[in-house]
Amino acid sequence: MSRKLNFAIVGCGVIAPSHADSIKNIEEARLYAVCDIVPEKADGFAKKYMVDHVYYDYREMMKDPAIDVVCVCVPSGIHGEISKAAARAGKHIVCEKPMEITPEKMDDVIKVVRECGVKMQCIFQRRTMNAAIAVKKAIGEGKLGRIVLADAYLKYYRSQEYYNSADWRGTWELDGGGALMNQGVHGIDLLLWMVGEKVKKVFAKAGTLARKIDVEDTAAAILQFEGGGFGVIEGTTSVYPGFETRFEIHGEKGTVIFDDSGIKAWKFIGDDAPEVPDAGESLGGASDPAKISSAGHYILIKDLIEAIHEDREPMIPPEEARTAVDIICAIYKSSRENRELDFQI
């Protein structure tokens, strides 16, 4: 049996428990260290999870040769900085979404990770949902035929108090955007992953309609895929009380629709009694980020461990994780310039 890998978590905020709980439940992993620039947060987190090694400066933590993997759970605009430091220290990486907040910064992260020869797993836990896997398989097998419409409705609720709770929330510099970059990025990644086609054109509108923040709290976008079909993205944090994310994919031969609570439509021409797959566990988080399930994190962290031992790519390497962020940046640009953009990466 391979030895246990020592994990360290940088950033002891809202998402850190999903990482800690997952690591604690994986036999091949050990939560070895935690780090936060706020000593009280680091100390409290270490006490809760019975961790002996506590740091208040990630640069000092990176010098610890016992650490094998670093989980990056800091504000979005610092993901690249921490990930690059981990790679240069020879440590593998689990990075929360988004990997970074601009195409140029993502280029830099990928370059450093590849030069240093470490593994990097990016967190898009919705890809582990049974419903999403079944939909991707159905599309890949041609059950829907040519895709004509592929829609993601990402209607979250985040109060003004949520944005006021941390200086980085709702800022371009550290959050990278609003409803799309922070919350909606999960659904955008999932939609693109399921459809499996490149996006050729983007037209969008994004605005700040309900919150006192620098970034958007409401956005709508139209995509055109390389196969000619259209996609619709509605992303917001301004609708009360927050609703389950919903995906509707229509092809010339059929339709699949699902949300967080299950599959709502699974219909194909010529198949009067299709076998509807089990949707599995809901990941939650529509109205409260603290209620996000850690099930997907468990799967992705365990996969990284196996990727390290087997010397293979993890499920979501950085080159694949960048696509949703590239699309979001194009949406922002389209809205600012009030024009349709040709999209290429």
From TrEMBL:
GO terms for molecular function: nucleotide binding. Residues 134-256 form the GFO/IDH/MocA-like oxidoreductase domain. Residues 5-121 form the Gfo/Idh/MocA-like oxidoreductase N-terminal domain. It comes from the Bacteria. InterPro entries: Gfo/Idh/MocA-like_OxRdtase_N, Gfo/Idh/MocA_Oxidoreductase, GFO_IDH_MocA-like_dom, NAD(P)-bd_dom_sf. Pfam families: GFO_IDH_MocA (PF01408), GFO_IDH_MocA_C3 (PF22725). PANTHER family: D-GLUCOSIDE 3-DEHYDROGENASE (PTHR43249:SF1), UDP-N-ACETYL-2-AMINO-2-DEOXY-D-GLUCURONATE OXIDASE (PTHR43249). This is Oxidoreductase. It comes from Clostridium thermosuccinogenes. The lineage of its organism: Bacteria, Bacillati, Bacillota, Clostridia, Eubacteriales.
